[in-house]
Design a protein that fits this description.
This protein has 172 residues and is mainly alpha-helical. It is built from six helices and no strands.
Length: 172
Amino acid sequence: MWNRLKSFQDRLQTILDGWEIPALVLTSLSLQGILIVLGYRRKFSTSEKLSFFPWITYLLASWVATVSLGIISNTIPNLDANDKVERAELDITAFWAPFFLLHLAGPDTITAYSLEDNSLWRRQALTLVSQVGVAVFIIIRAWENSLLNILTIVMFIPGLIKIVLRKIKGRK
């Protein structure tokens, strides 16, 4: 019995190792899409039942993006970039970091869930600074003169701008 369980666990771990980051990307992108729709509808509805879904989606979207950056930062040092296939995997893994920064900035339809979020802007700014630091760590750790790394920087800049603008809006 225990051998079968161990075998199942090993097979599941193999599957998760290969699909963990793409699954997190899809989850984060889906949550962003839901936030776009629900954030817009939230402006016109005050129902408590309807306000639960944007709230939980708002919290989950931030959590998934943060966890994803952490997983990528833990994955980057473990990849050996000597092999061309491993190098390509490293570049693609690092390429997701700016997208998660964009997701952390959130859609334009909902900048903060409540007024309390705006009053906590210092704490949120510190959190975002650390998340940007993790993204910079990922990009530096995976850097090699390749086209994909240059595109990573090109995607990093709008993510950084959007996060700064979000904090400026939250501070007012």
